[in-house]
Specification:
- This protein is globular.
- By secondary structure, it is α/β, with parallel strands linked by helices.
- Strands 1, 2, 3, 8 and 9 form a 5-stranded parallel beta sheet that branches. Strands 4-5 form a two-stranded parallel sheet.
- It has 8 helices and 9 strands.
- 35% of the residues lie in helices and 15% in strands.
Length: 253
């Protein structure tokens, strides 16, 4: 086709890079807790928190607990709103405000970004800001990749909408903890099997108000136990995956 198209419909195609995860891991497994409320769920493994700046600012004890636990706190934007039709100038202002608040309440600027409900300008605004090691506003692959569409290469560490407890709150989603566990297990099994030749990445999305309910926490506990029964699984934070990818697969010159 002669006309240009803004979306990359090919990705890595048939030529996948070898991730070379630490300790020859077949799978990099990471959990994301979306912090959008006023309470935090305790998970005893390294995780990434997607922190909405307004929510972080309103609960200093929760922020202190995240930092004390050694969790990564990535930015989930300034407010949990849909930016689809927000003017670009307002979205840019909110991005800068998110960074300012995040830096003040956590002691350091965010290195990861995930807005979730983006506008057509979001990816470009993040790249132009220039301070994020990775952008997670993508669901395009099971591996990180570089996006050079906005002036300089920006690392993308894709997130997930399917291995995500948000499906408890959507139509035709999970209606029991057993369904949640089965879906996480099946996802893990496929990626772990594929990872024997070309290592993969698995993201699990969690929310305090969803996975924090007892009947769902039990399913998450079962999945954690299942994952730990396997060798060569790197349970880590998204920032660690990003830094590894930059060191192992730097952007093309």
């Amino acid at each position: 086709m002669s006309t240009s198209y803004p979306r990359d419909m090919i990705g890595y195609g048939a030529t996948l890079p070898h991730a070379h995860w630490p300790d020859n891991a077949k799978l990099a497994l990471q959990f994301v807790i979306n912090y959008e409320e006023g309470a935090e769920n305790s998970v005893l493994l390294p995780v990434t928190v997607y922190g909405v700046a307004m929510a972080l600012e309103r609960n200093p004890p929760a922020v202190a607990a995240m930092i004390a636990a050694g969790w990564e706190v990535a930015s989930h934007g300034y407010r949990w709103i849909d930016y689809q039709h927000v003017p670009e100038s307002v979205e840019r202002q909110h991005l800068r405000k998110a960074i300012e608040i995040h830096s003040r309440v956590t002691g350091e600027r965010p290195l990861g970004w995930y807005l979730g409900r983006c506008s057509p300008n979001t990816r470009r605004l993040v790249a132009e800001e220039g301070g994020f090691i990775y952008d997670a506003d993508s669901y395009a692959d099971d591996l990180p990749y570089w996006d050079a569409a906005h002036g300089k290469p920006q690392l993308i560490v894709p997130y997930t909408l399917d291995a995500n407890d948000m499906r408890f709150a959507t139509a035709q989603g999970f209606n029991s903890g057993e369904q949640f566990f089965a879906y996480l297990k099946d996802t893990f099994d496929v990626l772990y099997r594929e990872g024997a030749s070309l290592p993969r990445m698995m993201s699990v999305g969690l929310h305090c108000r969803l996975a924090g309910r007892p009947g769902r926490t039990a399913a998450l506990e079962r999945f954690l136990d299942y994952a730990r029964e396997h060798d060569r699984v790197w349970i880590t934070r998204r920032i660690d995956i990003a830094r590894h990818w930059i060191a192992t697969h730097p952007a093309a010159e």
